[in-house]
Amino acid sequence: MTPLLEARGVVKHFPVRGSLFGGSQKVVRAVDDVSFVIEPGATLGLVGESGCGKTTTAKLVLLLERPTAGEIRFDGESLATLDAEGLRRYRHSVQAVFQDPYASLSPRMRVGSIITEPLVTNERLSAAELATRLRKVLDLVGLPARAGELFPHEFSGGQRQRIAIARALALSPRLIVLDEPVSALDVSIRAQILNLLKDLQRELGLAYLFIAHDLAAVAHMSHVIAVMYLGRVVETGVARTVAVHPRHPYTKALFAAALPAHPDDSRDDIVLVGDVPSPLDPPSGCRFHTRCPQVMMPRCSTDEPQLACVDARDVACHLYDRV
Amino acid sequence: MNASRAAVLAFPGRLASFRREGWPMVPITILAVLALLAIFADVIAPHDPQVGLLGERFRPPAWQQGGSTAHLLGTDHVGRDVLSRLIFGARVSMVVGFTAVIFAGVVGTVLGILAGYLGGWVDQVIMRVTDAWLALPALTFAIFLAAIVGPSEMNIVIILGLVYWTRYARVVRGEVLSLKERDYVRLAIVAGCSKRTIMRRHILPNVVNSAIVLATLMLGVVIVTEAALSFLGVGVPPPKPAWGLMLADGKKGLMAGYWWLTVLPGVCIMLMVLSANLIGDWLRVKLDPQLRQL
Questions:
Q1: How far is B197 from chain A (nearest CA, A)?
Q2: Residue of A96, A99, A106 with shortest CB distance to B190
Q3: CA dist A45 → A154, A313, B196 (Å)
Q4: What ipTM was reported for this prediction?
Q5: pTM of this prediction?
Q6: Which of A1-15, A30-44, B246-260 shows the lowest per-residue confidence on average (mean pLDDT)?
Q7: Is the CB of A103 less than 8 angstroms away from the CB of B189?
C-alpha cells in the first residue's frame, strides 16, 4: 500500500541576512533531513520542544513553505512538481487546524462563511447544498446549526476550535495537519477536543499529522510518534513502543518531564540542563550532546548519529551503536 | 479610555471633556454645518455668488458703519455678496476635498495591498516609486502638475489624488505585511483561495479602518492645498467661489481696511481643516490604537 504522505530527506533552511558590512550569510536549519510516513487513516504524532522544527514541517506539508531539499509525496505524487490541477486536488485533500483559535478565524466573517470558504473555493455548489454541508459539519463537531450565523467572537476558545475543525472537515479531506490544536485551550476542554478528533478519525477515515509538545496528548492520539530535536528526528516508532519504553535520552527526558497520570505515581527525574542550542549554529556531532544526561562518548561530539533500528523503533543515538 | 487619555494629552482643560464624553461634538458640528451649507447652498445663499453690482462694492459687514442687512458679511471688489460666496465656497472645498481624498485613498490602498501582499519585485517597484514621490515637495509638485494640465475642478481633484496617494500606500503596505502572517490568511491559502480572493476578502476589510483614519487626517491637508493652489491662481478657475481664490482676491484690499475679504475665508478654511483634523485624530485613537504613531 502506498502511504498517504511521505516525506523523504526534507530540509528547510531559512537564510538570515548577515550584518551590513559583509559578514557571512548564515542559515537557520529549521528542518534538517527529516523523513516520515503517514498511512491513510492513521495519525503521526510529531513531538519536540519549541523551535525544533515541528511547525516548519507543518508548513512544508501545507505548501506554505517550499523545502530547500528533499521531497514530500502525497499519494505517490511529488508536491514539488504539481501542476495547477494537481495543486487544486492537493488543497482539496489536505486541510489544517492551527494552535490559536483566536487567530485562525477571520474576525470579520460569519462562522458559516468561515466554514464554507474551502467549499466555495473548491467546489461548485448551490446555496442549498452549501447549507446542507454546513449543517452536517457543524453537527459533526457538536455545534448547533444556528452557530453559522454568528461571529467568531461570540464563541469560547473550545467552541472556536470546533469551528476551526468544522472548516477543516468541510472538504472531506484525507489528511488534516493539526498544529498544536489543543495547546491554547483550557485543560478541561483539551480532552473533549482530542476525543472529538479521534471520533472523527474513526468515522471519516482521516489521517492526521498531529503536532504537539504535550506528550500525553501525542501518545493518546497517535499511531506513530516522531520525536524532533533541533530540526532532526531523533526517535520514531509505533506510539506505544516509544511512549512506554523510550530509548533516546532526549525522548526519555521528555517523557520524564510529563506529569504522571496519578500524583502518587513515581517518576524518574531527568532534568535537562541549559537551553536548546541555536539552530543557526547547531552543535557538531550529535545535536543533543550538549545537554545529554547520559554517558558521553567522544564520538558524540564528532559523529552525527543516524537513525537505526533499536528495539522495534528507529533511534539516532550512539548509545545503541553496534560495535 | 485611550481616547480620553490622548485627549487629555492633546487638550488639557475644558476641551478635553468634550472628547471624554465620546464624540468630539464641536468639530463634528462644524463639519456638519459646513456640509449642510455646501449641499443646500442654492437655497441658503441670499445672492448669486458669481454676479456682483459694482455700485455695491466693498460694503462692510452689517454690524459695521456703512454695512447693510442685505449683505450680512459685506461685498467684495466687484460687489459680490461675501456670505453667498463663502457658502458656495464650502461646496467647492467639500467636493474637491472629499473626491481627492477618496481618489488618493483608492489608488494608494490598492497599490499598498498589492505591494504588501505580493511582495518581491511588485513591492520593490511600487515602494521605490512611492519613496521617490514622497521626496517631491507636495505643493511644488501640485503647482507643476496644475501648470501642465490647466486649472479646473476636475484637474485639481486628479492632481491632489496624484500628489497624496503615497501616504496611503505606505500605511496600507505596513498593515498588510502584518496581516498576511495571520493564521486565517494562511488557512485561506490552505483552503485554496486565490491571491485575489485573499486580498479582497481577508486583507482589504482589515485595512479599510486605517485607510479611513488616514483619509480624515488627509482631508485637512487636501483642503489647504486646494486653497493654496486657488490662491496661487492654478486651482479652481476664477468666477467660481473657492475660499483660496477669495483670499487671493481680497489680499489687495487688506491695506485699504477691507479685512472681511481675507479674514472670513481664512476663518472658514481654518475651521474646516481644524475640524477634519480633530475628527481624524479622534478616529485614529478610537478605531486603531496601533496606528497612533502615524
A1: 9
A2: A96
A3: 32, 14, 35
A4: 0.86
A5: 0.79
A6: B246-260
A7: no
